[in-house]
Amino acid sequence: MRLLPADLPERAALSLEVHARPSEPLAAPGRASYVAVLVDADERERELAHLARLCRAHGLPAPVAEAVHWSGRIGGVRLKWERHGEFSSYTLMAVQTAAHDAPAFADPPAAQLPSGWLAGVPGMTVYAGHAELLQAEDAPSLPDLQQDFFAGHPVVGSAVGDGAGLAYSDFLIHADGFGRILLVDQGFTPLMAGRMLQRLFEIEAYRMMALLAFPVARRLSPRILAIERALASLTDSIAADSARDGSRDETLLQELMRLATEVESGLSASQFRFGACRAYADLVRTRIAELRERRLSGLQTLDEFMSRRFTPAVATCATVSQRLHDLSERVAQASHLLSTRVDIAREHQNHALLASMDRRAKLQLRLQQTVEGLSIAAIVYYMAGVVGYVVKGGRSLGLPLNVDLFVGLSVPVLAVLAYSAVHRARRHASEHEAT
Which of 191, 206, 221 is a domain's end point? Predict the structure, then answer.
């Protein structure tokens, strides 16, 4: 007997989401490689097909079409594939079996994949890195570490995991196209070491994804400056034109609309990237906090390094994004004010036009009344003539009729009748127009 109502269709998937990307354990001494590839939406199927061919070649089940992660053993390495929002990551781990005097980062796990397979992954590389996991007794001194593992470059490092290990990196791309991370085991379990490596790799991947907005910000900055200057000039022109007669308001409004279109174009082209920058920067800060760093004498911590180098770039992107939004609001406000002024000017013009039409209507009414008076006189004149002809005809028949008397008496009667007929016709026309 079922005790619960029907499940939400996404219940099982949402419940498993927190377990979707488990860390791979790695014991010291060990090595790892990590590659983050920016993959377009239309390349996702090719990516899965490429991974499926590798799985079939090694007798492994391929990921399903909706999969977002997969892991399996390819020869001597453990491969984990994960699909993120915009990029996919490939993590390879292998236990170190070479002699301790082997060159640092020699024979990385990425080199143990079939020839050309990793290079054939669809998309473009965002970040690639190799990592070495050493036992504490095998860790060299800082000068040797800097020279042997990082080609003499300045190193950033700290104690991580509340002192369970040491982490070092130079945050540079070396000749092989990979960055380098050194992790020293001072008390890690294999699962803790795997989680720590994953965090270090993700810090770099998310850092690079966040900084994809930085070139966009650089390109937009001169454009924003030009729009700001043009807006300031237009605002001055609006004020000057207002002081005169407002004759250029329509032209200024068209210029403002052009600026508004340009600003909205910049917003639509950049806001996704700037929003992603904020999200990835938050992930970088979260992953750094999860390292639980302690300072090593003479070295910058990862948090300090990011605060001095990475955070200003993110702040630049945030500033450009905010400037675009502020500029959009300023252009909209100026357009609204100018539109209001144009509308007021049009209302004044319409009021003047209506007043002129009212004056013309009154003149037409007076003219019509004058014409009506003349028409009544003409009607009376012609009707009096008709009466005169009738009376003359009666006198010709021998009737004793005075023509002048009859015509004179008929004039007032005819005038009243004509006036009544014209007035009735005008009232009937007014009633018909009102309906």
Answer: 206
Cβ contacts of 422 within 8 Å, gap of 6 or more: 372, 375, 376
Torsion 61-65-66-69 (CA) sign: positive
Can you tell me the distance from the alpha carbon of 156 to that of 36, in angstroms, rounded to the nearest whole number?
22
- Nearest Cα neighbor of 256 from 275, 270, 273, 236 is 236
Domain of residue 389: give its range: 366-434
Question: Do residue 34 and residue 155 come from a single domain?
Answer: yes
> How much is the pLDDT for 228?
83
Give the type of residue at 260: A
* Residue 360 resides in a domain: no
Count: domains in the chain? 3
In a domain, 2, yes or no: no
Position 51 in a domain: yes
Distances (CA, A) of 4 to 9, 11, 12, 14, 311: 14, 13, 14, 18, 49
**CA–CA dist 117, 58 (Å, integer):** 13
**Boundary residue ending a domain (298, 317, 352):** 352
pLDDT digits (tens, 9 = 90+) for 119-143: 999 999 999 999 999 999 988 888 8
- Phi, psi of 36, rounded to the nearest 5 degrees: -110, 125
Q: Are residues 239 and 315 in the same domain?
A: yes
CA distance 177 to 234: 50
Same domain, 274 and 169: no
Below-70 pLDDT ranges, the chain: 1, 16-21, 97-102, 241-249, 338, 340-345, 365, 368-374, 429-435
